[in-house]
Amino acid sequence: MKTIAKIIQGKYLDSVKLMLISRKLREVPGVEDAVAIMATEENKGILAATGMLVDEILPAKDNDIVLVIKGEGDPEAWLSLAEDLLSGKNDKHSGTGKEVASASLESAINHLEHPDICLISVAGKYAAAEADKALDRGLHVMLFSDNVSLEAEFRLKQKAISRGLLMMGPDCGTAILNGVPLAFANAVPRGKIGIVSASGTGLQEVSVAIAHQGFGISQAFGTGGRDGKEEIGGIMLHACLDHLIHDPETEVIVLIAKTPEPKVLEKLWDQIASTPKKVIVNFLKPMETPNLPNIEYCHYLDETAAKACLALSESSPYPLSIPSLSSYVRHRMIEGRKGAVKGLYSGGTLCKEAALIYAETFGKEPLSNLVKDGPNRVKDIWNTDQDCFIDLGEDEFTVGRPHPMIDFSLRAKLIANEGKNPTTTVILLDVVLGWGAHPDPAAELVPVLKALPERIKVVCHVLGTDADPQQASKQKAALEAVGVKVFSSNHEAVDHALAILAEGGEES
Amino acid sequence: MLKRMTTAEPRLLSLGGCAKPGVYEDIHSRFSSVLNFIMGDRIVSLCDASHAPGPFRIITTGLSLEEITAVELSDDLLRLNASLLPVIVSDIYQPPVFTEPTDTDLLQRNLCLSSKYLSQHASSDSLPVLLSDPASAPLSFQGQLAQSLRTGLDLFSLGKYREGTNAMKRRGMGLTPAGDDLLIGFLIGCSWLEVTRKKQLSKIRECVYFAALDNDLMVNTFLYQGYALLVDEDWVDFLLDLSRSEIFSYRSMDRLMGHGASSGADQLLGFHQAVKLFGI
C-alpha cells in the first residue's frame, strides 16, 4: 500500500471542487482512498487514524488544503491526475482557447466580436433584470431560468418584439438557431423543417425523430411553456411562426404547445391560413382543427415528426414510416393485467405523452405529478402501489438542484425504491441525450438497474442521435446489456411498457 | 449588425445588515462568484446574483468580481473599485424576527416531512448519507469521519456539549468542514427553538458556540450566524415554511441543499439533531 500526499498553499477551492476531486481520485483503479481536505488538526487526526497522515503534510497549516491518496499502483500518476483536476485541465468546459469566462454580461459582450444572443441561467428572482439588460443591448434572449412572474414575462416579450428580438422563455430549455444547439439540444442535421415549440423535450423528441428519418431542421425556437396563456397572448408563438412562414430555408413547419388560450389559438389558425406551407400542429392532446388544406394535426410526437417528413418526402430518397398508434395495446383485454408501471421521467412533455397514451389505453388517468391537485395527483412518490408517472423535471424536484437530465441521483434512488416495491412490474424511463445533458447516463443507470429484482422489467426511451456527445447507440447498447428494452421513440417505449403490464408482467 | 453598448451598469441587489461601514481591503478568499473580505473578526462576502441575500453578504450584478480589490461602505454608498453604487434602505437585508407558530401539529408534521426528505435527497457525499450508512469502511477517511461525528452526537445526547463539539469541529470534507456545518445547523436549531418554542437553551447554545470557534474567520462567521439566528434568505424561507405551509413545498429545502457541495444538507442535519434532542 502506497500513500502520496501534497500540501496546496495559498489556493482556495470551493467545496464542490474539493468533493469532486476526492471522488474522481477514488474512482481511479487501484486507489483505495483519496481526500482533498482542509488541513485542520482534527482532520489530520482522522488521517492519522486511517494511516494517511504522511510526513509530507505534517507542516500543513489550518488554512492549507492537503491532498492524500492511498492505494496500489502508480502514485506519481495519481498526483499528476490530481494536479490536473486542481488546475482545471480535466474540466471539459475549459481549454479550448476560445472560451472566455466572464463575470458579467458587459464583460462577455466586450470579449465577443458580434454577440447576438444571450442565454440566461440565474436564480429566478434576478433573471428578469438580466433579460432586460440583454434586450437593452440588442441581444436576442433565451431565458433558461424559471420562477419569473407572468407580468415580467409579458413585459420582456413586448420589449423584445418592439425591437425585433427573440425572447425565448422563461423556462426555455431547448432551441436550435442557425444550426447552433442551445441549452438541452441534440445534434441534428440542418434541413427544411422549422419548429416552434413551447415544450423543451417535445422539441427534442421531434427534432431527433426528424433526424432519424434522414431530414433536418432549419430553425427550432423555444417559447417557454406559458407563452400560449392569456396573460402572455402567445407573443413568441406568433412571432416565431411568422418568422418560419417567411423564412426561405423553411418548407414545412412544426408547431408544438399545450393547447393555447382561445384568442391565441384563433390568431395561430389565421397565421397558418395565410401561408401555403404545410404546418404540422401538436397541442399534446386530441382536438379538432379548422378545415385548412395545409394543416396536419397529431397529438403524438413521433407521429408529428413523421408527418413533417412525409410533407417533404416527394423529392426524398429516404424511406418513411408513420408509427402505428398503439392499437395492439389499446384493444388488448386489460382484466388480466398484474402489477403497476412506474414512469420516472426527466422530460416533462415525454411524461405527459406517456400519461396520455396510458389514459387512451386503459380509459383512466394514471396517478402523476402532472396535475396540481385532485384524485390523480400522486401523494407520495416513494410509496404508491398504483400506476404512476412522475416528471422529475418539475419545480418541486429541481429548485436548488441540477435538472434530472444532468443529475441522476434522485432517479437512481427512486428506481432502487421501486425495486423493493412488490407491486411494481415495469419501470419506464427516458434518457435524454444531447448537449447540456449528463455525459454518460447509462453509466449512472446501469448499476441501479442491475440491482433490480428479475421480476421487474425496464423499458427505456433513449432520446438522441449518434452525433450527440453521448452517442445514442452506445447508450442503447449499455442499457440493453443489462436487460433493458430500449426504444428510440417515447410512444413505442410506452406502448411496450403497457403491453408488458397487460401481459401480467411477461414481455410479448 | 446589432447595437453594442459598452457602458457597464453595476447594481447593488442586496446589502447584508451586518456589513459595517468601513473600508475592506484584506481578502480572505476569492472564487469566481464570491469574494470574501475580512471585516474585523468576521467575513463579508461580495457575491454575484446566484447567491441568496444574507446578513454578511453584498450581492451585486454587472460587475466582474475578479477585478475587485477593495470595498468601501458608507451609510448611503458602496464603492467597489471605481464603481459607486447607491445604497437604499430597501436593499438592506435583515432576517425577520421569527414568531411562535400557532399550529404545533402542522409544525410537527412539516418537521417530519423535512427530516424524511433530507434523508432521501441529500447527496451521497453529505453527512445525512454518510451517518446513515453503518457500512462505511472503518479504515477510510469517511469511515473515521463518520465515527467521530457519531461520537459527537452521542455525547450531545448525554448532555456533554463541549466534548461533543470537540469531537465534531473542524472535521470533514469541504472548505467549511462538514463537522462545522453540522454544528452551525445545530446552533440554528437551538436559536430557533429558543425564539419560537421558548426553550431554555441559551447555556447549551453558548457552550457549543464558544467550543466550536476556531481560527478560521469564515467558519466563525457562519457559527455566529447560527448562534444569533442571523441566517440567509434560504434559511429564513425554510424556517418560515415549517410553520406556515399547509402543503410543505420542499423548495426552500432544495435551495438550502444546493449550498456548497454538501454544506446545506450537513447544516440541515444539525438543525434536525437539535429538534430531535430538545423537541418542540
What can you see in these coordinates?
The complex is a heterodimer of chains A (508) and B (280). In chain A, 36% of the residues lie in helices and 19% in strands. Chain A contains 17 helices and 19 strands. A six-stranded parallel β-sheet of chain A has the order 15-16-14-17-18-19, with helices on both faces. The longest helix of chain A has 15 residues. About 5% of the residues of chain A have low confidence. In chain B, the strands form two sheets. Chain B has a six-stranded mixed β-sheet with strand order 3-4-5-6-1-10, with helices on one face. Chain B has a four-stranded antiparallel β-sheet with strand order 2-7-8-9, with no helix packed on it. The radius of gyration of chain B is 20 Å and the shape is globular.
Provide the low-confidence segments of chain B as ranges.
Answer: 1-8
Rough outline of chain B? globular
Helix content of chain B: 40-55%
Helix count, DSSP H or I runs of 4 or more residues of chain B: 10
Structural class of chain B: alpha+beta
Outline the fold blueprint.
The complex is a heterodimer of chains A (508) and B (280).
Chain A: E1 2-8, H1 15-26, E2 31-38, H2 41-49, E3 65-71, H3 75-87, H4 105-111, E4 117-120, H5 124-136, E5 140-143, H6 150-162, E6 167-168, E7 174-177, E8 180-183, E9 190-197, H7 200-212, E10 217-222, H8 235-246, E11 252-256, H9 262-273, E12 278-282, E13 295-297, H10 301-311, H11 327-330, E14 340-345, H12 348-362, E15 367-368, E16 388-391, H13 395-398, H14 409-419, E17 424-432, H15 441-450, E18 457-463, H16 472-480, E19 485-487, H17 490-502
Parallel strand pairs in A: 4-5, 5-6, 9-10, 9-11, 11-12, 12-13, 14-16, 14-17, 15-16, 17-18, 18-19
Antiparallel strand pairs in A: 1-3, 2-3, 7-8
Helix pairs in contact in A: 5-6, 7-10, 8-9, 12-17, 14-15, 15-16
Chain B: E1 11-16, E2 22-24, E3 27-30, E4 34-39, E5 42-47, E6 57-61, E7 71-73, E8 77-80, E9 83-86, E10 92-93, H1 104-121, H2 127-130, H3 141-157, H4 161-168, H5 178-197, H6 202-212, H7 217-227, H8 233-244, H9 251-257, H10 263-278
Helix pairs in contact in B: 1-8, 3-4, 4-6, 5-6, 5-7, 5-10, 6-7, 8-9, 9-10
